[in-house]
Every structure is written in C-alpha cells, then in structure tokens.
Request: fold
Amino acid sequence: MASLHVELENKIDRLKRVYFADQSKRLFFKKGAVLARQGEVNKRLYLILSGSVVGNRCPEDNFDGHRPCSPYEMFRGAASTFVGVQSFFSQVYRSFSEVTATEDLVVAYIDTDTQAVEPEKYGSLVEQFVPIMVYELALRNSRLLEKAADKEAALNRMHRSEMTATLGQLAAGLAHELNNAIGVISRKTDFVATFLEETLEKRLPDEYHFFRLGEEYNAIFSSESYRNLTREYEKRYRLSNSNAKILARIAPSVEEAETLGKKFIQQLEQHASYWELGHDVRDMRLVARHATSIVKSIKILGGGNVQREDGVSVYESFSNAIALLKPNLRGIKLESDLNPAENNLTIYADMSELTQIWVNLIKNSCDALALAETVNPEVRISCFASETDVTVSITDNGPGISDRFREKIFQPDFTTKKNGLSFGLGLGLAIVKRLVDSYGGEILLDSQPGKTKFNIKLPIRNAYGNN
Reply:
C-alpha cells in the first residue's frame, strides 16, 4: 500500500514538473479575485503555487447565473492543489463552482491547446492525468463525508436545542402548577415547627433542648464510623444495640455523649423521641426547600437565573443531600472524609444548587449499584480545597459507564435507567453539567468496571459571574 502511494506521488510530481513549469503560463490574483464563475466557460486547469482559494456552489434549482442565491462551500485549496479538474477533463469546460482567492494567489495552468508530452511512453494527456483525477475524486469523497458528518452534528445540535426549548416550556408549566403546592407545604411545615418549639419551650424545657438538638443536627457519618460508635456505646453505657444506634445518631462522638449526661442516657428512649421529632422537622423543612430548588434547577435548562452569595457551606450542602437520600442509601456503605471542621469551607454559591448537584450524583451511584446488584455496594465522598477552588469526588464501586455512553450522559434526553428502577427523564446529569458550567467549574468522569468517579471542581469565589 505504501509503495502504491509513493508511485502515485511520483506520477503527480512528474505532471507538475512537465506541464506547469512554463513561466509564460503563470497568473497572479489579488485576494478576493475570482478565478472561475459557476456556469461560465473555463478551459484551464490550474495548479496553485502559493496562496489559497475557496470554491462555493449555488444549488442548481436556485442558480441561473443572474439571480442571487445562498451558495454552500464545496472545497478549499492551498499550494499544490489543482483547480478545475472536473470541468477540464470531462470536457464540459464550464466551472462547477465559483472559485475565489482567499489571499494573494499565484497559479500555473494548462489549457485546451496543451499537447501531451511523451505520449508514446505515458499515453494521451487524459491518460497521463488519471492519477490527478483519482486523487481529486478521493478528496471530493472525503469532503462529502465530512459534510455529511457536519450535517449530522448540526441536526443533533438542533435536536438538543429544541429539547432545551421544550424543557424550558415544561419548566414554566411545572413552576406554575407546583409553586402553590410547595408554598403550602413550606408554610404549614414552618407553622407546625414554630408551634412545637414554642409549646415545648414553655411546658417541657428539658425536652425542648433535645428537640432543638435534633433540629440542628447535620453530621455526616460514614457507615463504618457509625457501626464502630454504636459498638462503643453498647460497651461503655451497657445499652442495647437499638438504643446504642439511637445514641450514635444523637451524639456523633464520645465527648458529645458525655455532655448529654447519664440521666439522658438512662432515659434515652424517652428523650430520643424529642430529638427525632426535631430532626424530622428539620428534614421536612429541607424537603420543602429542595422541592422548590428542583423547579429552579429544571428552569436552568431553559435559561433561568438564580441568586448566589458568599459564605455557603459545602459541608452543610452535603448534609442536606444525604438527609434527602436516606431511603436510597439504605444497604449502601457510605464513606466520607468530610467532618464538622469542613464547616469552615464556604464558597460563592446557592445552597439549593449545591445540594442538587450532590443529590443527583449520589442518587445516580445508588441507582447504578442497585441495578447491577453490586455486592458490598459503596459510595465514597471526598473533598479537597485549594486557595481558589474546591474539588469534590463522588465514587462508587458499581459496574462503570461504558465508552459508548460517556459522550451522551450529560445530554438532557439521555438516560440509562431501565426496568422501572427509577423515574428517569435523563435530566439529572444535564442539570448537574449546566449548574457546574454556570459556576465556571468543571466536571470530569473517570469510569471503569468496579469504579466510577465524578470529580467536580468549583471556584471558591465569584470568578465567573452570576449567570
């Protein structure tokens, strides 16, 4: 194959030396000059010596040589390119396109008066130029394939644009229908919470204290840490396994358990119910806010804007996400290097947006683990901050994402959720990608069988704007 290519190049080089060396057959064109016009007579074959050209063609049904049309690009050529091969050797002698110099141009040419050189050895003029025709035919086919690929890509972009517009209309309808209902839930939750707080504070001040502890609780526990602490409380305070689990939730460290006092621990079940009540109120408020944020997040696909501010806690956004995903995380080992000290890590953001990012990514991991029936399923969360950025990694030990899906997972109409596992519109990762982009951040996927990791990098300060 290589030898055939070399042979072809040698033949073309000979044609250039033999037929295009005549200095009297050189032409010079300024940038913007026209070498040939579509449909007009042209009895020359050009070889570009320097400069470049573009060939544009009007569709046949729109072209009569006089009326204006919308031409499409046929080809571009630079030094060593032949121009006019088709019209010259088909002997039509009419240009198939309008050829214009895109920069100052020097060309050599042959015309219909040119005679074959050494015909007894190399054949007629047409026979000698067969390599040029074959080469140009290959180039023309290559250009057609490129145009077909560009057209397909343009159609896909148009489809996604139409999908985005449709989602924008859907978001507006959802906001109109759901905002009133969400508003009622939010107001009633606040009313119930306020009533409980005021009533307990007046009548049961000790129980009110534990109610408030439950409301303020936002610790993030890894599964292993939770189990270890439960065993520690069983031994230290001689508790049953169920009561030790309750205490591990209320007091995420031995030091905090000691501050509660022996009386509290002895009457754990009685006091714990008030702690649970406070924590449930917190979750109700969180869910109401999250429902509002979901509507806002879908609006982002339609170009909606949100308000962001400095001082948003990354740790709290993860605490909110995990609270919302309790049902999904059952049976899954959750590992995290986040701890209350991370409360000091704050960035320019919107709390509901951050929560939405983590909820979508962690839920996708949970769904993938469940669908694959992964043995010992695990989700790991880690966080690293530099002076300018925070990088979060969410990793699972699921089946991974195949190569054929990697380019599609961020498209708004793509989903891998099947068999009724989850209600999948393919919006989750599209929303995540749009949110991360809107912060001037980046999201990267690293996936292989047994490990899928999403790395999300966000700026700490408002370095990108509010839109």
Notes: Confidence is low (pLDDT under 50) at residues 418-426. Residues 320 and 355 are 6 Å apart (CA to CA). The longest helix spans residues 130-203. Residues 308-336+344-467 form a domain with the Heat Shock Protein 90 fold (CATH 3.30.565.10).
